[in-house]
Design goal:
The structure is a single chain. Strand 1 (about 1-10) and strand 2 (about 15-20) form a beta hairpin. This protein has a five-stranded antiparallel sheet, covered by helices on one side. About 15% of the residues lie in helices and about 45% in strands. The longest helix has 13 residues, at about 35-50. The chain is mainly β.
Length: about 100
């Protein structure tokens, strides 16, 4: 299994960002506090449904966040979509498609 691409909308510091990956090893690099860990956490969240850190998942300016991922498993492309909505200041609701 490998990830073809990842799209983040209102997820943490990403307003609208897309990332393409190659089969094999991919390197994510950048300065401190630029979102490297957030990319890895988004991948984990869309694949497992488990958030490593629930703080500030949704961008401060929004009431929702979307994570889209296209993965290849057994030569079949799977399109994953996760929508996260604020219920109130303390609670989040996740919807998988």
């Amino acid at each position: 299994m490998y990830i073809l691409n990842l799209e983040l909308i209102n997820y943490r510091l990403f307003k609208e960002s897309s990332f393409k990956f190659n089969k094999g090893v991919n390197i994510i690099f950048g300065y401190n506090s630029t979102g490297k860990t957030s990319i890895l956490e988004a991948i984990n969240l869309v694949l497992t449904g488990i958030a490593i850190n629930n703080e500030n998942i949704i961008n401060f300016d929004s009431d929702f966040a979307n994570i889209f991922a296209n993965i290849i498993k057994d030569n079949i492309t799977h399109n994953l979509k996760l929508i996260i909505k604020k219920i109130d200041e303390q609670k989040l609701r996740k919807f998988f498609f």
